[in-house]
Amino acid sequence: MAYYKAADSKREQFQRYLEKLRVLDTLTKVLVALYKEPEKPNSALDFLKHRLGAATPENPEIELLRLELTKMKEKSEATVEVNKKLKAKLAQYEPPQEKKRAE
User: Fold this and answer.
1) Range(s) of the domain holding residue 37
2) Which PANTHER family does the record cross-reference, listed alphabetically (predicted)?
3) Domain count, the chain
């Protein structure tokens, strides 16, 4: 008998935890939205993921965007390095600031 009370207690604690974090409300809203959907989607799980805002890393479009982002970051870093080198080179040919002010 004590075993059943312990299980019920854990279940009640978990239920309170879900209620506190509004997980049950959110899941209920998503399931109601699925229920009210006039044309049921082929994949209910994908519908739930989309409505909950879960990113799907399997999406090839997302992977392409990540690769493009990585390339652009590398290109940006390379451009910054070239800019630094050119500024240093330019500084060699410019007169010091003190001489400019005197003239």
Assistant:
1) 2-54
2) ASSOCIATE OF C-MYC AMY-1, C-MYC-BINDING PROTEIN
3) 1
- Report pLDDT for 51: 87
Q: What angle do CA 76, 88, 80 make, to 5 degrees?
A: 5
Tell whether 32 is covered by a domain. yes
Q: What is the CB-side half-sphere exposure of residue 23 using CA atoms within 13 A?
A: 8
Tell me which amino acid residue 15 is: Q
User: What does pTM read for this prediction?
Assistant: 0.44
Q: What is the pLDDT of residues 58-78, one digit of tens each?
A: 677 888 888 999 999 999 999
Which helix (H) or strand (E) covers residue 101, if one does? helix 97-102
Tell me whether residue 30 is exposed, middle or buried, using C-beta atoms within 10 angstroms of its C-beta: 0 to 12, 13 to 18, 19 or more: middle
pLDDT tens digits, one per residue of 21-49: 999 899 999 999 999 999 999 999 988 88
Closest CA to 89 of 98, 81, 101, 77: 81
Instruction: Say which residue the tokens 């059943």 belong to.
Output: 4
> Does residue 36 lie within any of the structural domains?
yes
